[in-house]
Design a protein that fits this description.
With 245 residues, the protein is an alpha+beta fold. Helices cover 27% and strands 26% of the residues. A hairpin with a 6-residue loop joins strand 11 and strand 12. Helix 3 runs antiparallel to helix 6. The N and C termini lie far apart (50 Å). 37% of the residues are buried.
């Protein structure tokens, strides 16, 4: 049982930020709450529930689709504005009970190295809006510096739609979490490939430099096995996209 001492449900973003900004108080932001029982929280943690103050709308303007951070994964799957690859990968994030609670903002903030949805967001050029920052930041920049979320809240995630997309994965069973997965997207002059299961978070990769990867090992596969999967799955995605190299 986690030692959560207080629960707050603020009525505004400003109130939520004030709760996060208190000196000598350990807080954690909760959106859908599905990750709360999977993380180690310090004793005396106070929960700040943002579901009443962050947008849950989906909007499209030209090729840009913006998801409020409180958009549930089930709604992301069902919304006609969601790029098809993201709808497919969001559906793989877990059973419907999880998708009905998990949010896109929470998924980004968790940064799970096995998340195929995060790989899809990377190839769709995801940009993350965070309180206190004038401009959204690119998703790889957030993964490289988690301090950007200190005493801050993700408010939306925007992606660029369009292009040809493909994905490939390997798991112990078809329904199991993938050991390694690849997502790809091509638009004129730009090929983007992202992998899960080869680094601390999903990452964009250069298909010509896969041998330089140093994946962490676990009971499902050694570093060498994951690196081999990365090459095989990347090649499958590239082949599906027309053999672009």
């Amino acid at each position: 049982m986690k030692a959560i001492t207080s629960y707050h449900r603020p009525a505004s973003i400003d109130e939520a930020l004030a709760l996060l900004d208190r000196a000598d108080v350990t807080t954690t932001v909760v959106a859908g709450g599905t990750a709360l029982n999977t993380v180690d929280l310090p004793d005396g943690t106070e929960v700040v529930d943002i579901q009443g103050v962050v947008d849950s709308a989906v909007a499209r303007s030209g090729d840009t689709v913006t998801f409020g951070a409180m958009v549930r994964l089930a709604d992301l799957v069902a919304n006609p504005n969601t790029p098809p690859l993201l709808a497919e990968l969001a559906h793989r994030e877990g059973p419907n009970t999880l998708r009905n609670a998990s949010t896109i903002g929470g998924t980004v903030a968790e940064g799970d190295w096995e998340s195929e949805l995060l790989a899809g967001l990377l190839v769709h050029e995801a940009r993350v809006a965070i309180t206190g920052r004038k401009d959204p930041i690119d998703l790889p920049d957030l993964f490289a510096d988690w301090s950007l979320l200190d005493r801050a809240i993700i408010t939306s995630v925007s992606v660029t739609a369009g292009g040809e997309t493909a994905s490939a994965r390997t798991g112990r069973t078809p329904a199991d979490t993938s050991i390694v997965a690849a997502a790809g997207r091509i638009v004129p002059g730009d090929l983007r490939i992202a992998l899960t299961g080869v680094a601390a978070t999903p990452i964009l990769v250069d298909p010509e430099k896969l041998l330089s990867l140093d994946p962490p090992a676990d009971f499902r596969g050694s570093s060498e096995y994951r690196r081999e999967l990365a090459e095989v799955l990347t090649n499958r995605v590239i082949a599906e996209l027309g053999g672009v190299s």
